Amino acid sequence: MIPTVEECFELMDKYRMLENIKDHSVMVARVAGMITRKMQDVGRNDLSLDLAVAAALLHDIAKTACLDSNENHAAQGREICLEHDFFEVADIVGEHVVLSNSVPQECCSEKEIVYYADKRVLHDRIVSIEDRLEYILDRYGQNDARLHRLIEQNFRICRTIEQRIFDVLELQPEGLTDMVNGHPLVLEHFNL
Fold first, then answer.
1. pLDDT tens-digit series, residues 127-170
2. From CA 15, how far away is CA 3, in angstroms rounded?
3. Residue 104 DSSP label
4. C-alpha–C-alpha distance, residues 93 and 114, integer Å
């Protein structure tokens, strides 16, 4: 089952998602929704806009609860989604930080789209992958060379996904901000 936008916001409230995390999640949903819609426009009718938006809205559902612990918020978020029978969403939420498999040749599924959208949103604004990488290294790298290598490896995967998405869309990644901010379709459809 895929939750509605209203159900996603109810869960955000239930799990006491901080407002700044909620703002981040809404922007990730806008980015994921726009990419999904544009991919559908070029023939990717196998993609679900509802799934991409719901998973993006819930990708950080456990982040507030995990802020003061060492728990993995993606794994905890997956469990929350499973508890609510949102099985399709759970899989995406569980892998929004690190994908468990390599990028498929036929990129991209809703999972890769949400993963990518999250890497393009810093707080509540769209930034380049490089800007987001710099932030993640500074915030979570702990001046640890091993962590830096793992984070950089994760962002190499993100760059591959970016290239595949924008090759299909025949657009440039730099245009994502204008595409999201200037296109009312996703906003009207989901009221985000």
1. 999 998 888 888 877 788 888 788 888 888 889 999 999 888 87
2. 15
3. P
4. 9
Q: Which of 155, 187, 162 is nearest to 176 (CA)?
A: 162
Question: Which pLDDT score is estimated for 187?
Answer: 45
Q: Enter the pTM of the model.
A: 0.90
- Enumerate the β-bridge partners of residue 121: 126
Domain that holds residue 48: 5-190
32 near 114, Cβ under 8 Å? Answer: yes
CATH code where residue 26 lies: 1.10.3210
Total structural domains within the chain: 1
% of the chain exceeding 70 in pLDDT: 93
**In the structure encoding, which two tokens stand for residue 102, read together?**
């390599």
CA distance linking residue 61 with residue 162, whole number of Å:
24
Separation CA 90–CA 191 (nearest Å): 23
Segments in the chain below pLDDT 70: 104, 182-192
- Nearest one of 34, 168, 14 to 114, comparing CA atoms: 34
> In DSSP terms, which residues pair with 126 in a beta bridge?
121
**C-alpha distances in Å from residue 30, one per residue of 27, 86, 92:** 5, 20, 16
